[in-house]
Amino acid sequence: MSSSPIIQVRDLCKVFRVGDVDVHALRGVDLTVERGEFLCVAGPSGSGKSTLFHVLGGLTSPTAGEVLVEGRDLARISDAQRTELRKTKVGFVFQKYNLLPTLTAADNIAIARHIAGRPQDHDAQFEQVLELLGIRHRLHHKPSALSGGEQQRVAIARAIVNHPTLLLADEPTGNLDSKNSAAVLAVLRDLNQRLGQTILLITHDPHVASYGHRLVHMLDGRVADA
């Protein structure tokens, strides 16, 4: 792993205004993620882990503190710069696959390249990714013809087609049975081990958390241990 962390978080706070009440979702989080690391963040509902995911991915702005992703402070860049970061540096995998139902798997992946302004032809590394994911023979099928596990693997392919430096996965096995969950987690571990993909995975499941190099627990908006 490189000596330069891909993520550095210092005293991160996030406050949401709900009616007349301030909800403190993150309360002074400190976290470092090394390049090539597979980090799992676990905690119960309401612990702040999904809010952390959204801040690290540039989907929402921090209220206070410092969040460096690839050396860039997310609190100090414009909305346009955060959008560019999401398109080129960060890949997202969610519990709900978020595939467009009228498009084939191949076209769902192609959209990500189009949005990022990348050529539509696949390079050798992505061809290797398709082999790891085991979906090459399913690329011309629409989501309705794919199993849940296949849909999630297509979503992973879409997330990494532009070779992001960071892959953020929020409960990626939450909608899957045990067999498909194991297959998706094995794929993520392969992407990390074979290609050096940095992965930060959010989960409430201890078994899922065991797939990472390191486990961080969150509780009440704070890192309980690291």
Q: Can you walk me through this structure?
A:
There is one protein chain. This protein is an alpha/beta fold. The chain has one domain: P-loop containing nucleotide triphosphate hydrolases (Rossmann fold). It is 33% helix and 28% strand. It has 7 helices and 10 strands. It has helices at residues 49-56, 79-88, 105-115, 124-133, 148-160, 178-195, 206-209; strands at 7-18, 21-33, 38-42, 64-69, 72-73, 90-93, 166-170, 198-203, 214-219, 222-225. The strands form 2 sheets. Strands 6-7-8-3-9-10 form a 6-stranded mixed β-sheet, with helices on both faces. A 4-stranded antiparallel β-sheet has the order 2-1-4-5, covered by helices on one side. Helix 6 (178-195) links the parallel strand 7 (166-170) and strand 8. The longest helix is centred in the last third of the chain and has 18 residues, at 178-195. The radius of gyration is 17 Å and the shape is globular. The chain starts with 6 loop residues before the first strand and ends with a strand. The mean pLDDT is 88.
What is the strand and helix layout of this fold?
Elements: E1 7-18, E2 21-33, E3 38-42, H1 49-56, E4 64-69, E5 72-73, H2 79-88, E6 90-93, H3 105-115, H4 124-133, H5 148-160, E7 166-170, H6 178-195, E8 198-203, H7 206-209, E9 214-219, E10 222-225
Parallel strand pairs: 3-8, 3-9, 6-7, 7-8
Antiparallel strand pairs: 1-2, 1-4, 4-5, 9-10
Helix pairs in contact: 3-5, 4-5, 5-6
